[in-house]
């Protein structure tokens, strides 16, 4: 089942259950997918759908951090609830140990010897973890392993 079909089904369920939060988030996700489809000019591939979901998740996490900085606990709670809804559509996130193993394998594969090879390693790692890991965590892990 495509993500768009899943969102449509969840939209109907949220409408019937009068779940305003889920309804709002699912509508935003559908709109983001439609905008991306128009921008790309073709039906989205599963990879492109994953990119849209990751972008939506990242935006909400950034918003939550900003609201927390501004001591807006009411908005933080709302965004946390939105994140929980969006995460249902995202693939399971990799643990830090799994990321470290992928990074170590990639370092060996590209024969990286120091921080000068950072770009090569990131280029090898990111396609493997796309949508399954936060880029900031991957970045931190690569830097830690290359500086050993």
Automatic annotation (TrEMBL):
<dbReference type="Pfam" id="PF09424">
    <property type="entry name" value="YqeY"/>
</dbReference>
<dbReference type="InterPro" id="IPR042184">
    <property type="entry name" value="YqeY/Aim41_N"/>
</dbReference>
<dbReference type="GO" id="GO:0016884">
    <property type="term" value="F:carbon-nitrogen ligase activity, with glutamine as amido-N-donor"/>
</dbReference>
<dbReference type="InterPro" id="IPR023168">
    <property type="entry name" value="GatB_Yqey_C_2"/>
</dbReference>
<protein>
    <submittedName>
        <fullName>GatB YqeY domain-containing protein</fullName>
    </submittedName>
</protein>
<dbReference type="InterPro" id="IPR019004">
    <property type="entry name" value="YqeY/Aim41"/>
</dbReference>
<dbReference type="InterPro" id="IPR003789">
    <property type="entry name" value="Asn/Gln_tRNA_amidoTrase-B-like"/>
</dbReference>
């Amino acid at each position: 089942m495509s993500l768009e079909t899943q969102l449509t089904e969840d939209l109907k369920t949220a409408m019937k259950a009068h779940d305003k939060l889920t309804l709002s988030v699912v509508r935003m996700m559908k709109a983001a997918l439609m905008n991306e489809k128009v921008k790309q000019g073709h039906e989205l591939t599963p990879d492109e759908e994953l990119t849209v979901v990751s972008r939506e998740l990242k935006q909400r996490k950034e918003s939550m951090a900003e609201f927390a900085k501004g001591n807006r606990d009411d908005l933080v709670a709302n965004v946390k609830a939105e994140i929980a809804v969006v995460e249902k559509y995202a693939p399971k996130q990799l643990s830090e140990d799994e990321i470290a193993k992928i990074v170590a394998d990639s370092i060996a594969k590209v024969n990286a010897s120091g921080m000068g090879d950072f770009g090569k390693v990131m280029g090898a790692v990111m396609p493997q973890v796309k949508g399954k890991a936060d880029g900031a965590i991957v970045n931190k892990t690569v830097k830690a392993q290359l500086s050993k």
